[in-house]
Each structure stands twice: as C-alpha cells, then as structure tokens.
Amino acid sequence: MSKKDFFQGLRDGLPIGLGYFAVAFSLGIVARNAGLTPIQGFIASLFNVASAGEYALFTSIQASASFIEIAVITLVVNARYMLMSCALAQRFDPKTPMIHRFCVGFGITDEIFGISIARPGYVQPVYNYGAILISVPLWSIGTSLGIIAGNFLPARVVSALSVALYGMFLAIIIPPARKNLIIAIAVCVSFLCSYICGIIPVVRELSSGTRTIILTILISGILALVKPVKEPEEEQNESDAV
Predict the structure, then answer these.
(1) What number of CA atoms fall less than 13 Å from residue 4's CA on the CB side?
(2) What is the pLDDT of residues 194-232, one digit of tens each?
(3) Contact present, 91 and 117 (Cβ < 8 Å)
(4) Helix, strand, coil proportions of the chain in percent (round to 5)?
(5) By CB atoms within 10 Å of each CB, which of 67, 161, 193, 210 scores lowest?
(6) What is the DSSP letter of 183?
(7) Phi and psi torsions of 198, nearest 5°
(8) What is the pLDDT of residue 134?
(9) Distance between CA 163 and CA 173 in Å, rounded?
(10) What mean pLDDT value characterizes the chain?
C-alpha cells in the first residue's frame, strides 16, 4: 500500500465529500424534526453513510418505531451496498487481508464505489481509506449543521444543494462510459430499466433499494455472461503473448 494511492483517494474523495456536505443539510432538517441533537446527527451519519438509509432512519425515529423496525428498514434500504461491497472485493488482490475488506465495505457509497471500480488493475484498500477519510466526516458535519441551521435556509436552496450530488455522480460514470462501449450500454440500459421499474405497477411499490438490487443482479449477470471481464493476470498474459 502506497502513500500515492492514499492521497489519490483524498483527492478523488474531496468533491464527493463536498457533495455529501450539501446533501446532508437536507437530512439534517429531517433529523431535527425527529428530535435529534447535532451530536446525535453526527454519530448517526458517521455510522450510516447513506442518504436513503438515514432518511428511513430519521423518519422511523420520528414515527416512534421500535428498535427492531428501525434496524430492519435501515437494512432493507441499504442492502444494495452489500452487492457493491461484494463486487468491489473481487477487484482486490487475492492476498488482501479480510480486515481491509470489512473496513472498505463499511465506507462504501454509490460515489465511492464508482471511483473505486473505475480504477485500472487491482483496487488498493488505502485508496478507499483516503476517499472515506475526507468524505465521511464532511457527510457527518453536514448533517449536524443541517440540524442547527437547516430550517433557516429556504427550501429552494436546500433542493439546489442536493442536485449537485447527481451532477457529480454523472461526472464519475460518463468518462469510463465514453471509453468502453459495454459500460456505455450498461449505463443506458440501467437508466432505462430504473425508469421503467419506477412507473410499472407492483414493481414501483418496492423500495428504491430493492429495485436497485434486482436490476443490479439482472443487468450485471447478463453482461457478465455476454461480455465477461478479464482478470488482471489474463490481460497481462495476453499482452506478454503479443
């Protein structure tokens, strides 16, 4: 593990953290309505780095749900991160200790997964540590400040700050899609299928996290059969043969 990978993680995680900071303001408003203090909001965001998951958590608290109900709904909403963790773990060097896999899995988010999976070759856990170290504290601080000052901001300002994160996510997926036709097709198919699943009966009643899991398994499974990704050793062997 090198310092270079760590500082690259810090560099790539900074814009993600700034986006999280803005989005966390709106979550802070929800947390304040649920009766949480700034310190409680900070701790909640530190251990639950997920906007949808935290929204479900705070609204459940506001509704006086039981501990079991809160745990179950948070698990269901955040379940897609288990898929991301499993997918990213396959990009690690096989000799990577299990403790690093668990630590990286703790800090997996949509955006951190995007920048990590887009890196060539094996993913170094220290790269993720750099991204997590800068983005997660900003996420937690944003929630605390949202609790303190969120209600004083106009609703339009909070909404505008939230949109910035979507633009940042597009900036993550567009470059690799431009370089690889298969990725571009997968992105387009994912967008289309996600939209369709959000409007057709029955399926649209499922939570967004559940729909994401189903689509991820189906689309990635089909593409894995049609166009399997070669391991780094296989690519190196083909290069040596040429």
Answers:
(1) 1
(2) 899 888 888 888 776 677 778 878 887 888 788 776 665
(3) yes
(4) 80, 0, 20
(5) 67
(6) H
(7) -85, -10
(8) 93
(9) 16
(10) 81
User: Tokens 């990213």 appear where?
Assistant: 88
**Angle formed at CA 19 by CA 199 and CA 86, multiple of 5 degrees:** 65
Provide the pLDDT for residue 144: 92
Nearest to 115 by CA among 130, 98, 93, 100: 130
- With tokens 């997590």, the residue in question is 132
Structure tokens, 196:
């369709």
Among candidate residues 54, 50, 48, 51, the one with its CA nearest the CA of residue 34 = 54
Statement: the pTM of the whole predicted model exceeds 0.85: no
- What's the one-letter identity of residue 25? F
CA-to-CA separations, 86 to 38, 79, 89, 104, 196, in angstroms, rounded: 33, 12, 5, 11, 26
Q: How many CB atoms lie within 10 A of CB 95?
A: 6
Q: Cβ distance 178 to 184 under 8 Å?
A: yes
**Percentage of the chain surpassing pLDDT 70?**
84
Radius of gyration for the alpha carbons in the chain, expressed in angstroms and rounded: 19
Q: CA 51 to CA 78: how far, in whole Å?
A: 9
Kindly state the tokens that stand for 158: 């909070």
The total number of residues written for the chain in this structure: 242
